């Protein structure tokens, strides 16, 4: 079992974010001690890792909450979960393609400036001699 402070240290999430996740339904299953202190388990850390990956995909929070609801509803929601994750995967692949195109433009510009900087430096060296 982990306290909220320990989870903050392990995940780099803030306590505010962890409480918000609980409030919006991303993590409604957090155990509590007899004093009301949140107690996280390894399965909660695994879930937070998945949520972090979903965030990196750009999945909207509403979709993450929907996914969490589907998980809690049980195995009969596999089809809906599949559809949600498949749509997210398509979005990620489209963003990767955009980033590859952007990287190609940057590489062309960098090559151009590198070539012209080298030529400028060579010309300056020649004039100094």
UniProtKB/TrEMBL annotation:
The keyword Hydrolase does not apply. Keywords: DNA-binding. Residues 1-70 form the HTH merR-type domain. InterPro entries: DNA-bd_dom_put_sf, MerR-type_HTH_dom, MerR_fam. Pfam families: MerR_1 (PF13411). The keyword DNA-binding applies. PROSITE patterns: HTH_MERR_2. PANTHER family: HTH-TYPE TRANSCRIPTIONAL REGULATOR ADHR, REDOX-CYCLING DRUG-SENSING TRANSCRIPTIONAL ACTIVATOR SOXR. This is MerR family transcriptional regulator. It comes from Streptomyces graminofaciens.
């Amino acid at each position: 079992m982990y306290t909220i402070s320990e989870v903050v240290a392990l995940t780099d999430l803030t306590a505010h974010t962890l409480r918000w996740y609980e409030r919006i339904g991303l993590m409604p299953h957090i155990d509590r001690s007899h004093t009301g202190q949140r107690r996280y388990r390894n399965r909660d850390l695994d879930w937070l890792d998945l949520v972090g990956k979903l965030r990196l995909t750009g999945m909207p929070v509403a979709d993450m909450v929907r996914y969490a609801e589907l998980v809690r509803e049980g195995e009969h929601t596999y089809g809906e979960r599949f559809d949600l994750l498949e749509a997210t995967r398509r979005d990620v692949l489209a963003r990767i393609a955009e980033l590859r195109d952007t990287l190609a433009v940057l590489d062309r510009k960098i090559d151009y400036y590198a070539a012209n900087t080298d030529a400028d430096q060579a010309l300056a060296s020649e004039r100094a001699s």
